[in-house]
Amino acid sequence: MVDSTELTYIILGLTLLGMIWYMTNRGRANLAKAREEAAPAIAGEDQIEGAAKNPEQFDEPDEEALEEMAKLLGEEE
User: Fold this and answer.
1) Does 64 map to a domain?
2) How many independent structural domains does the chain possess?
3) Angstrom distance (rounded) from CA 44 to CA 46
4) What is the DSSP string of 6-57?
């Protein structure tokens, strides 16, 4: 029937085929993920998170901001 050497070769062959199958599928998944991450951003599909770190800083304008607004409005003295 089948001796131990032939059985060992059969097991090793099946293991080799399983490893090749696993590596091929993992490679395809990695390539798909890389293509998705490298795809150009389309307006409206990206998720922008966060807010101003210190929103209170915008409550009172500083002198530089007031001067710039006056310049833009033509109210320079």
Assistant:
1) no
2) 1
3) 6
4) HHHHHHHHHHHHHHHHHHHHHHHHHHHHHHHHHSPP-TTTS------S-GGG
Range of the domain at 32: 1-41
Sequence-distant (6+) residues with CB within 8 A of 61 are 69
What stretch of H or E contains 69?
Answer: helix 63-73
Q: Which two tokens stand for residue 6?
A: 């032939």
* Residues 1-58: tens digit of each pLDDT: 789 999 999 999 999 999 999 999 999 999 999 999 898 878 777 777 777 788 787 7
